[in-house]
Amino acid sequence: MGFEKENKKKAGSSSSNSPRSLPREDTPLLSGKIHVHPLSSQPKTFANVFISVVGAGVLGLPYTFMRTGWLTSLLMVFFVAALTYHGMMLLIQTRRRFEESPLCGYSKISSFGDLGFAVCGSIGRFAVDSMIVLSQAGFCVGYLIFIGNTLANLFNSSLTFPVSAPKIWGFSAKSLYIWSCFPFQLGLNSIPSLTLLAPLSIFADIVDLGAMGVVMVQDVMIFAKQMPVVEAFGTFSTFFYGLGVAVYSFEGIGMALPLESEMKEKPKFGKILGLTMLFIATMYAAFGIMGYFAFGDNTKDIITSNMGKGLLSTIVQLGLCVNLFFTFPLMMNPVYEVFERRFWDGLYCLWMRWILVVAVSLVALFVPNFTDFLSLVGSSICCALGFVLPALFHYLTFKDEMTWRQASADLGIVVLGVFLGVSGTWYSLMEIFSVKLHLIQTLRLAERGPEPHIATNFTAKMIRNIVLYQIKIIWCPCPLLLQKKAQN
């Protein structure tokens, strides 16, 4: 399956006779031989869409409901699901126009990047490729954060939390667990083909669904015994924070075109897609509300951390860690395809893959909170991929035959996506870097000495403890420096 631009002038060129032609800007990203296989039925398409959309982001939804308010989050989940569905359908409509029109000169469009090239040329492909690289790498950063925090919580949780961070041999437990994954990820990411890794995708989805089921059952049992105080609404800033996490959780826009191509009854794809998105939104809403209602203000950024230390809890959390560990190379594969295409003539490049794994691991070390990072990726990248680019491509393709209402709808989604993306990115960065601002203030207070109103203020003491805990996680190589500062 490929993106074929019909060009009669090059029909007799020597490149067609070469054993392997180098990729160009108009070469399909999903290139290769066409394999004839049965197309998907409606139930199989439903399952494929479900698998493509549901991921690890769902584990951060209860914490988001706690930060944003359960009613605000509930409406937000269904709003994002509807907007994501609309964006997918815009991509499909745009692709059909290019494939069905003989004047366009494109017989087959297989991927989001191919569609970007068809609409905007090299700029369109570069925009899509850049967003896909950042989003896929962002997903993998989130996986490493989850693995590090979960293992540290399971095996090295400190009784003095949050005053001191869990440590192993003087290093933060999270950092050590992330680096322990590094050599194994180098080996897994060296595999050039996805064929050997394909069964891991099925295993990952089974583990995700099993973990969600176990967590929801436990939520119901806890909620039946006690009902904590919950809030229906949050603040203005937390709205954009929650929006980023919701967009991240629904990120599957890049699979819309391949899934529609694989369906047997293509005219019914819109109906199946809509039903699947409605089902996923309902499941997300139930999972988020039940988690928040069970633990209230004690809901953690990774809901499985609230499960305690029992055998079942340990098995579920370890299963999720193994799941994300093996999902890492699958999610990084599109990044490798783009980089090898642009910088290595489409050839396999081992050292480039290893450098990208190092870069992703380093970023994971500097982000302490799993859900904070989900919000950042969802706001900054997924908003552009899911809302802005589909509406923009649709408008540029159909602008000559649109009514003013249709044009306003597309342009309105573009403006809305840009506004939500910029606002959400700003508030997410504020959440992440606020830890460093608190550290500076704490160190200045320590240099001046305790003031009476500070010494008697319980809230100020707690902020200082939390700041020191978070900084020890982030700056794990510098524990002695922190101790000296605290002594001074």
Automatic annotation (TrEMBL):
Gene Ontology CC terms: organelle membrane
Transmembrane found in the keyword field: yes
Single GO BP term: amino acid transport
Domain Amino acid transporter transmembrane: from-to ranges: 41-428
Location within or outside the cell: Membrane
Domain of life, source organism: Eukaryota
Presence of the UniProt keyword Transmembrane in the record: yes
Keywords, comma-separated and alphabetical: Amino-acid transport, Membrane, Transmembrane, Transmembrane helix, Transport
Record membrane topology: Multi-pass membrane protein
Protein name: Amino acid transporter transmembrane domain-containing protein
Organism the protein comes from: Penstemon smallii
